[in-house]
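dude i think i finally got it to work??
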Amino acid sequence: MRHRAFTLIELLVVIAIIAILAAILFPVFAQAKTAAKGAASISNNSQLGRAWVMYAGDYDDTAVPVWNMTPGPLEFGRLPGVGYSPWSQLLRAYTKNSSITQDPVIRGNPTEGDIPLELLWPYRPQYGYAFTVWSPLMSLGSVDGSPNPQKLTQAADPSNTIVLASRKDRTTLDWYTPGTLIWMAQILAPPVCSGQRTGTIPDGFCPLIYRWGIGGMGALPDMPTDEEGARTGCVAIRKNRMANVMMSDTSVKYMTPAVVASGTNWTWESRVGQIFMTDIKQYKWDLE
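look at this
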């Protein structure tokens, strides 16, 4: 009995069909992987939001401070030898898992020296705190800035008040102090900064380096990309040019930078110092 073999033409047709299917399916698989990472990022931010609310429940409705000069496992950047705990370290008692401080859309922050990731990651979160809203600094003369945590119930519009958002990663430095961890690597800048102060409620000092607009990261030793927050106050816009944002009602969603900066005149072409308020009711970095 004779067995019919495939001809060369038939083999080429099959190979062509497989190639076409691969070309169609590979982008679909990539999109599915990106979507899964985006969903995991929302989950991480949601868990941090729940921990933020639980902390306030144990502290008379007071938001977690941007940091405490309490004995922490790692050092305060401006005062070598003194331990401190940033907001993400203070929430560890409620999260039990340091990995949720890292955004699955990008790789986790790498270790530094022999510091275990479980200790390092809360000091290097990839979600930043809207500290000018919830724990504004009252001084630039004191070592820690005298943070002033606010009550959660003070938010007039909880669904429109930012708490956390995706933050630039560690591929570019923040404030560097040799021999210590970097200070202020856990915060975000508001779009509007009137001089040195926010000029909103509550009023407090702006970050000294991070600003919105072109040139807002001018003092950093390594410039982040636009995706990692170069023009958006360290708010990272990694997924489809959108930021992962948690509001004070604990809702989490992806927003474009324009929405994050709504109520202002910010555009991609704005320069640092040229951004001002246009509609306080739409502004998401204020408790009014």
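Residues 37-260 form one domain.
im so relieved honestly
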